[in-house]
Amino acid sequence: MRQPGAYSNLLSGGKTGPHSLPLARIKKIMKKSGEDVKMISGEAPIVFSKACELFIEELTKRAWAMTLQRKTRTMHKEDVAAAVMETDIFDFLVGLVSHTPNPSAPLES
Amino acid sequence: MKRDPDQYMPIATLTRIMRCVLPDHAKVADDAKETIQECVSEFISFITNEANERCHREYRRTVTPNDVVAAMEGLGFGNYVEPLTVFINKHRAQQDCCPPPRQATHQPLPPPPQMARLPAVDGYVPSPPAVDVANYLEMPQMRDYFVGPYRGGGGGGEQFDPFK
Known about the structure:
The complex is a heterodimer. By secondary structure, chain A is mainly alpha-helical. Chain A contains five helices and two strands; from the N terminus they run H-H-E-H-E-H-H. Chain A has helices spanning 8-11, 23-32, 44-69, 77-86, 94-99; strands spanning 39-40, 74-75. In chain A, helix 2 (23-32) crosses helix 3 and helix 3 (44-69) packs across helix 4. Chain A starts with 7 loop residues before the first helix and ends in a 10-residue tail after the last helix. By secondary structure, chain B is an all-alpha fold. Classes of the chains: A mainly alpha, B mainly alpha. At the A-B interface, helix 2, strand 1, helix 3, strand 2 and helix 4 of A face helix 1, strand 1, helix 2, strand 2 and helix 3 of B. Strand 2 of chain A pairs parallel with strand 1 (27-28) of chain B.
């Protein structure tokens, strides 16, 4: 029996692309990115689903390299922040990772 | 402060993608996953804003895949362009080859397949011969069945009298 292809879920109007990032949510985030973002082509969220996958993979690999430098096996938020600081193209994330409160920091009385 | 889950990619999907590039023994703390969730949403917003500006500069209103890819290249994600181009071309080729159905067509169902004849099996026990219902009680085996417990008839012997 023929098995469905990798993109068949996409073609049958499924809510997610073949990489399973939800297209509707991507579109929602795109629309929220600016007041004047009004019309988005149907294929744009599909392209973003693949782009986000590439982005996650790159950020994860870089963060894991930071984890290995700490000689540990558990990736923490600090490793992601360190990866952002080290990578020029992630400059747009600097404000995000430095503003996020550190739950492991001791509370000051 | 509670995070709105609709603003982020699902953490399970994110984790699955991360696992593809991490060694089996790697562990990822929840705070790292949440940070990456936020980074992904920021990435989408960042690229979309740039793509939208490109549209406006060219007096267009709709953000297209080409705008998204061009925005990525302009913002330093040039190494994404080739895999994204391959991805888009593949998607479009699939669309051209097998377009999604527009409407459900109400076609009559095909007739059910004929039931296959069972092959003859050795040792098959045939069904009993047809019974002549009119002479059912006259059949020797049936007469014995009914008369047997009250045997006394059929050539001698007292007949049973319940009033005696």
